[in-house]
Amino acid sequence: MVDTRVVNSSVMERKAEVKNLDFYYGSAKALKSVSMVVWDRRVTALIGPSGCGKTTLLRCFNRMHDLYPGNRYDGEILLDGVNILEKQIDPIEVRMRVSMVFQRPNPFPKSIYENVAYGLRVQGITEKSSLDEKVEKALQGAALWNEAKDRLKEPAYNLSGGQQQRLCIARAIATEPNIVLFDEPTSALDPIATSSIEELMNELKEQVTILIVTHSMQQAARVSDYTAFMYLGEMVEFNETNLLFNKPADQKTQDYVSGRFG
Amino acid sequence: MAQAEFSQSNSQSDYLQQIRASVARRELISRLFGLLGLLVISIATLILIALVAQLFVQGLPRLNWKFFTSFPSSDFNEAGILSAWVGSLLVMLTTMFIAVPLGVAAGIYLEEYAPKNWLAALIEINVTNLAGVPSIVYGLLALGLFSTVLNLGESILTAGLTLALLILPIVIVTTREALRAIPSSLREAAYALGASRWQMIWDHILPYSSGSILTGIIIGLSRAIGETAPLITIGALTFIAFLPPSPIQSQFPFISFEWLTAPFTVLPIQMFNWVSRPQPEFQVNAAAAGVVLILLTLTLNAFAIYLRYRLRKGVKW
Amino acid sequence: MTAHPLKPSGKDLQFTQKKKARELKERVIEFILFLAAFSCVATTVAIMYLLISESVLFFQEVSLVEFLTSKDWSPLFDPPGYGILPLVSGTLTTTAVALSVALPMGLISAIYLSEFAAPSVREVVKPILELLAGIPTVVYGYFALLTVIPALQWLYLPIGPFLSNVLPNIFPTELAGFNMLGAGLVMGLMITPLISSISEDAMRSVPINLKEGSYATGATRLQTALKVVLPAAASGVIAAFILGVSRAVGETMIVAISAGLQPTFTFNPLESAATITAFIVQVSLGDLPHGTLEYQTIFAAGLVLVFVTLAFNVIGYFLTKRFRETY
After folding, report:
1. Using one digit for the tens of pLDDT, what is the confidence trace for C228-257?
2. How far apart are CA C11 and CA A79, in angstroms?
3. Could you tell me if B193 lies within 8 Å of chain A, comparing CB atoms?
4. Residue from A55, A60, A67, A182 whose CB has the most chain B CBs within 10 Å, to mutate
5. Which chain A residue has its CA at the smallest distance from B315's CA?
6. Where are the beta strands (DSSP E) in B175-271?
7. Domain map of chain C by residue range?
8. Shortest alpha-carbon distance between residue B185 and chain A (Å)
9. If you write DSSP's letter for every residue of B97-112 in order, what string do you get?
């Protein structure tokens, strides 16, 4: 996929930046001095073998780790210049600005409409016409509107797996977030659903910044503009995708992308 | 040579026959045990059916409109269960009003909020412990605390408080299990959209688990309706020939809570009273009250079982 | 709650600084919920405090030695007797009769349901057992007094005179209208579902590979059940037994209606006697002015009851935890 927008770091904006981030699950150090940039309205992929910390890093961006006791951040993640890891910053406010799509589609046992509307209601939008308009916009953005527009009141569980994941994407973009985090979003889907989601991401990035964790190198190569390779909690290499895959600077990166280990 | 082979195969087949016989014997014993198990269950069920049937035969004919609308009386023909079933109804209302919010709130706290420290463990131990306390001890607690110290007397409110504490462990355990059944992926999805903990609980967890929680409440209710001992201890009188003041008044403010402080009786106590009388006619009355009680509790229990069955079929997380 | 500006950005995050109002609301809700949960601890404390404080008053008047060793319980007589042994013997005897019925029946049906029965049979039987457990105890009391005991009396009629000639101290000439045998048998029927379901849970949680290993050697279902499953589920079965005992000890209405209300020191189930629980009910039926010795006696009796059932419950709890933890 050729991105015709200017690929030039002096013109592009830094949407988010990770600075020397350590992360501890209790006493175990899961992220070691990780630093990277997330460019505005581009797709950035996090790849690496199991246990390398990519999902851990992803969940720092919306402070999901705060939900469980014993976790600790040490370092910074700047969102539009503001460090979201600071204790005074409310994680709930962070999550209203950074949304997430999970590995297995997890729509609520509610109607399609209510699934998409929930994030809006949480942010205080209650007026019906407002909700209607934003729900429609989100469903269109997730390429689900045509299939869903006559079934808005039906339970979300009636949808197929791929449709449910697109519903979760609609739910995530309804609130017009700054960044959408994707945690291996297609690992539970069949190849056709997978490619439709990948196409969707390509369209979405015009509007919103995307950070995606993926187990599949090929998927990273297909969808992302920038790729970060992690290993054992460290950021090994971060570069434009085609550079990282074709001319990796680090030997470990080279070994991983050539399949020497996985 | 052939001789030796012949004798060898002979003992081989003997040996095989022995094994087959042993297996057959053990299989037979096993099957007999299976029959025994079925027999035991059938006998228990049959005994119970016989007992219940005998109760119905004695009591059912006695059930008529007059029986439901008369007060107890020393004349067994005039006696009825009016004050008893009204009392049971009002006591159950009070019990539910206290036990449901208290129990569901406690269940939510233990399942969603409590950190894993000694305090949470202490609370959990207490819940388990309270489930095993004999019901009459709750009566003693009520007598000593609610009746005298808090000066609530021998009233419907005292009864409601007592029974609420009695069924509290049931409500708490059911609530916790219902909450536990909801997968964490749904909770994370709600959090990820910026919901606070209480919003997640109120908007998602409670609606999704309400069916299961309701099942537990119904079981608790069925248990409370049949409770006798704690209410006797409080001083629920066995001979009440009047009704508590009506909750609905014709003047402002139209709703009265005076009935909460009134003396009362309940169905099981009425039955107990009649069973204890020597005259056989009162025993017929007791049987009739028993029929009403059984119909009530069995209907509630059956409804709860049915609800649970439907819920299990319905929701697929 | 104020609506957010469209496309809230990261920049305005620094101005939100942990929305104070939301924090406060969440904290208040959490505290209210905590109070609800803590009510259980408060209840236990209240029960113990009440029982102990009234019993202390009781033991200021009555000697502990007499309480624990005398066989004369007659608090309303003159001179009054305060030995709790007759009530204890009544409780123990009815419990023993009940468990001698409930344990074999419960265990056999548990083994059957767990190892033999087809799933369809289980689907039918388990709700029936649950319904059994849902019948109010006062109705069971009616069964005991008006059906079971008359039946026992009828059965005893032909053999009574003969037996009472042989062993006059044990066998009465005819069976009394209140006796511990009838009460105990019905109590046993009531407790059977409890023992059955806890034992069955324990047996079902035995890992299937243990059972399969046994079947693979050619064992029958019965052999597997008795030699593999039962020993593995032993702590669960013992827990069931103990919880059944605790339930029987605490049972009130069945014994109050059919076992008798005269405290008698005897272990003979053919006689009538009062249990601790029946005594408390009997006294409560009368007038109970607060502060009198009679008032305090029921709390002393209640304290004994709580100690006994607490001990059993604690043991049963740890055993249940153990059988759940091992797997």
Report:
1. 888 888 888 888 898 899 999 999 999 999
2. 7
3. yes
4. A67
5. A109
6. none
7. 64-325
8. 6
9. HHHHHHHHHHHHIIII
**Tens digits of per-residue pLDDT, A183-204?**
999 998 999 999 999 999 999 9
CATH class of C64-325: mainly alpha
Is the distance from CB of A170 to CB of B189 less than 8 angstroms? no
Contact A182, A99 (CB under 8 A): no
Same domain, A131 and A201: no
Q: What is the pLDDT of residues C163-187, one digit of tens each?
A: 888 887 788 878 888 989 999 999 9
**Looking at CA atoms only, how far is residue A184 from chain B in angstroms?**
14
Looking at residue B264, its pLDDT comes to 84
- Could you list the residue range(s) of the whole structural domain that residue A53 is in? 12-97+178-262
Q: CB-based contact (8 Å) between B228 and chain C? A: yes
From chain B, the residues in CB contact with A62 under 8 A are: 192
Q: pLDDT confidence of A180, banded at 50, 70, 90?
A: very high
Q: Do A82 and C7 touch (CB under 8 A)?
A: no
Best residue in A64, A68, A90, A95 to probe B by mutation, most B CBs within 10 Å? A95
> Is A44 a member of any domain?
yes
What percent of chain C is predicted at pLDDT more than 90? 38
How many C-alpha atoms does A228 have within 13 Å on its Cβ side? 26
Structure tokens at A237: 């290499």
- pLDDT tens-digit map of C90-124: 999 999 999 999 999 999 999 999 888 888 888 88
Looking at the fold, whether A93 and A182 belong to one and the same domain comes out as yes
Distance between A221 CA and the closest CA of chain B, angstroms = 27
Interface test with B, best of C105, C222, C303, C319 (most B CBs within 10 A): C222
- CB C30 to CB B109 under 8 A? yes
Q: Do both A246 and A262 map to the same domain?
A: yes
C321 has a chain B CB within 8 A of its CB: no
Closest C-alpha among C223, C189, C225 to residue C106: C189
pLDDT value of position C1: 31
Q: Which residues of chain B have pLDDT under 70?
A: 1-10, 237-241, 247-255, 314-317
Residue A47 pairs in a beta bridge with A229
Domain boundary among A176, A209, A229: A176
Number of domains in chain A: 2
- Which chains have 3+ CB pairs within 8 A of C? A, B
Reported ipTM: 0.92
Beta bridge partners of A99: A180
Of B91, B120, B66, B82, nearest to B226 by C-alpha is B91
Task: Please tell me if residue A88 touches chain C, with a CB cutoff of 8 Å.
Answer: yes
CATH of the domain at A126: 3.40.50.300
Strand order, beta sheet including A98-101? A98-101, A179-183, A209-213, A43-47, A226-231, A234-240
User: From the list B192, B203, B315, which residue is nearest A100 (CB)?
Assistant: B192
Residues A141, A185, single domain; the answer is: no
Could you tell me the pTM of the whole model? Answer: 0.88
- Give the SS3 label for residue C135: coil
Q: Are A91 and A182 within one domain?
A: yes
CA distance B42 to C192: 13
Name the residue of chain C whose CA is nearest to A125's CA: C3
Greatest CA separation for chain C: 101
- The beta-carbon neighbor of C147 closest among B37, B51, B101 is B51
